Structures are given as C-alpha cells and as structure tokens.
C-alpha cells in the first residue's frame, strides 16, 4: 500500500508536468509546422521558376555570393549549420533567431539558381532555432529547453517531409548515437504529429513512393540484404568523405568565402552545361526526381553513374557555401546506386533503389531506428524486415563517419561499451 499511496500523492505533479509539456509541444508543432509549410511552398516555387526559366542557372555564381554576403551582414558567417543544432540540443546552447530567416531565404535561393542541396537539414535548423529561442526567452531549465528544441526539429522535419514517426525519432536519435532521451519522446511525437496534420490541412502532400518487385523473405533475400547493406555502408562513407573534403579543399585553395561562392557557383554551372545544358537540370536541386526515377519508375532513366554525378554536384555546391541540407541528396545517391546494383544481385531495380535509399541514409546519419521508420513511412510495411536488415548492416559497417561532426557516438558499433566520440 505504501508505494501506491506515494504514487497517488505524486500524481498531480506528474499530470501537471505532462500537460505543461504537451501544451508546449502543441504550440511548437503549430508554429514550426506553419513555418515548415511556408518553406515547402517556397522551395516548390523556386524549383518551378528554375525549371521554367532555364537561364536562372546562369545566376549560380551570383546566388552563391549573395548567400555568403547575407550571412556576413547578419554576423553569421561562421554558422555551423546542422552541427549547431546538435550542440543546442546536447548542451542547451542558445541559437540565434536570425538563423531561421537566413536558412529559409538562402536555401530557397540555392534551389532557385540550381544548387544541389536538400531541404530537410535546413528544416532542422529552422525548427531548432525557433524553438530554442522560445525556450531561452521563457527561461526554461536546460533539460526543458533541450526537449523544446527537439520538438522544433521534429515538427519542421515532419511538416516538410510528411514522415511524423521518422521525424520524432530522428530528432531524438541523431544527437547521441546509442542513447535516446525517452523523456522527450511524448513531446517530440506530439509536435511531429501536430506539424504533420497542419501540413496536410494546408495541402502539403506527404512523401511516399511505390515499390515494385519486392523480394520475398527467404535465406537468399537475407543474403542479398547483407550485401546491399554493406555496399551502402561503403557509399555512405564515401559520401561523407567527399562532401567534407570538398569544403576543406575550397577553404584551403580559396580562403575568401566570397571567392569560394563565385567559383563554386561557376563550377556547378559548368557541370550543368556539361551534363546536358541548362534545360536538363537532372542533378540540380534536391534530388527528389532521382528518387522517383530509381524507385517509382524502376530505374528506367537512371544512368549507371548517376549516384556519382549527384554526389559531385552536391559536394561542389555545399562546399562552396550554398545553403541547404544533405539528406535528400543522400536519398538520391542511395536510390540511384541501389537501383543500378540491384540487377547484379537478382533484385528488382525499384526495390534495390528503395533499400539503397534508406540504408545509405542510415550510413550517413548513424540513425538505424529512424531509417527503419523511414522505410515504413515511405514504402509501406511490406518487406520491412528486409529493409531493417540492410539498414542494420549499413549502420554496423559504416564506421564512425557521419554528416554531422558534432554528432556524438556514445556506444561502440562493434561491442556494447561506451566510447563517447564525435563522428568524423
């Protein structure tokens, strides 16, 4: 009876705490979700304008320069992008509210002129900067402030991409690999679902793909998934190495960020011209078209080297100082690689593209649970055990590389012990 009476006495405090966090989560979901919806429509409008007016690609050097100057004028030239978000969650470091409009405008400008960059990484910065600022303004304790920042990340990702489960778990999983702060699970899910519902109400369609030629669970398909997962681990390490390396090369050769932006924009323009002219635009933008071609269309128009071309476009774009994210370009690289490799392993190109997409995502983010949920939300429940196996293999074999240098690896991938190191 004693434990029961203690629990009853603590119930009012627990209920008040639960309701307070739920209220914060709903408010963040509505506020950040609305910003995410506006961001979605801004990206779509920029993409439509670029595809209608091909000459906009000629503005790539000026677009890059404008972005660099914008950050310099606002005193944010040393902004760390998504890495700053991870620090904000881990250490309750304040994020400047100006981060939100800066990443909003600069990412749209990147897409308008044809830079190869994603949008989900930018959405994380949008949501985190808004919710972090609210938390500091309210004077919340560090633990509460971190939960609020996670809610903002989840709401923005969910509103933009339409994957609420993935968004909530990714916001929790990406900061500390091997450790999830479950105290933030309810608020993160609530914010994510509110953002998702708001986006649906405002006519933002969730992202989904139709997979054909799904493999049947069997000893052979298990072996095939192990091989695909191992190959995607190699691709993930290569993706991170090239994108990080491009930034280092730019900085070493061209110390002035304004010159880097001009030269980088000119290089992306040159690559676009060599690829097929201004009207082709196959590798410009985020890369959703490549995922569609690889998964939904079964790789009919995917060149064998498409994943390398997309990686090159992305590394040259982001290394030069353009703004955006790496997640959708990662999807594109993984999907195009998977659909090309699949026939050699006896798999359909469509299914191979789907597996390659989520396994490569796991390899670059070190987030296996989020990747499994992503497979479920994008492709449906059929074949989920096979996706999960490929994802697990990619996670295990991708080492300690990652997109985000501030990501902390708490537990070894090889043995169950703590190592506490940062991703490379």
TrEMBL record:
Any one of the GO CC terms: membrane
Subcellular locations according to the entry: Membrane
Any GO MF annotation of the entry: chloride transmembrane transporter activity
Membrane topology annotation: Multi-pass membrane protein
Coiled-coil blocks: none
Transmembrane stretches, start-end: 21-42, 54-74, 95-114, 147-172, 179-202, 222-247, 259-278, 327-347
Keywords recorded for this protein, A-Z: Membrane, Transmembrane, Transmembrane helix
A UniProt-annotated Pfam family: Voltage_CLC
InterPro entries in the record: Cl-channel_core, ClC, ClC-type_chloride_channel
Domain of life the protein comes from: Bacteria
PANTHER family named among the record's database cross-references: CHLORIDE CHANNEL PROTEIN CLC-E, CHLORIDE TRANSPORTER
Protein name as catalogued: Chloride channel protein
């Amino acid at each position: 009876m004693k434990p029961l009476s203690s629990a009853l006495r603590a119930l009012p405090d627990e209920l008040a705490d639960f309701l307070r966090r739920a209220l914060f989560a709903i408010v963040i979901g509505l506020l950040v979700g609305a910003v995410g919806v506006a961001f979605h429509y801004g990206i779509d409008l920029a993409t439509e304008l670029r595809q209608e007016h091909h000459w906009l690609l000629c503005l790539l050097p000026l677009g890059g320069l404008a972005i660099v100057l914008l950050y310099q004028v606002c005193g944010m030239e040393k902004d760390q992008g998504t890495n700053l978000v991870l620090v904000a969650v881990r250490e309750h470091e304040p994020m400047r509210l100006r981060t939100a409009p800066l990443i909003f405008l600069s990412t749209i400008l990147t897409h308008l002129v044809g830079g190869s960059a994603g949008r989900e990484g930018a959405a994380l910065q949008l949501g985190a900067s808004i919710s972090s600022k609210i938390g500091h303004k309210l004077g919340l304790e560090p633990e509460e402030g971190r939960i609020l920042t996670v809610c903002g990340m989840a709401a923005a990702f969910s509103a933009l991409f339409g994957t609420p489960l993935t968004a909530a778990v990714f916001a929790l999983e990406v900061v500390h690999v091997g450790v999830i702060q479950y105290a933030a699970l309810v608020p993160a899910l609530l914010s994510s679902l509110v953002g998702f519902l708001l986006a649906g109400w405002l006519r933002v369609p969730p992202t989904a793909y139709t997979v054909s030629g799904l493999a049947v669970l069997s000893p052979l398909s298990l072996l095939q998934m192990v091989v695909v997962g191992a190959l995607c681990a190699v691709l993930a390490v290569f993706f991170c190495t090239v994108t990080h390396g491009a930034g280092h090369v730019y900085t070493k050769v061209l110390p002035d960020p304004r010159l880097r932006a001009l030269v980088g924009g000119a290089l992306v323009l040159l690559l676009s011209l060599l690829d097929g002219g201004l009207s082709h635009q196959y590798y410009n933008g985020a890369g959703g078209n490549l995922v569609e071609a690889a998964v939904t269309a079964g790789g009919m128009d995917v060149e064998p080297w498409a994943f390398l071309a997309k990686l090159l476009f992305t590394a040259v774009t982001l290394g030069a100082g353009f703004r955006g994210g790496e997640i959708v370009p990662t999807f594109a690289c993984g999907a195009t690689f998977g659909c090309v490799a699949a026939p050699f392993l006896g798999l359909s190109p469509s299914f191979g593209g789907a597996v390659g997409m989520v396994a490569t995502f796991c390899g670059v983010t070190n987030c296996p649970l989020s990747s499994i949920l992503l497979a479920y939300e994008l492709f449906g429940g059929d074949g989920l055990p096979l996706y999960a196996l490929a994802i697990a293999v990619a996670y295990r074999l991708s080492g300690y590389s990652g997109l985000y240098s501030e990501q902390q690896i708490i537990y070894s991938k090889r043995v169950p012990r703590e190592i506490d190191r940062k991703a490379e």
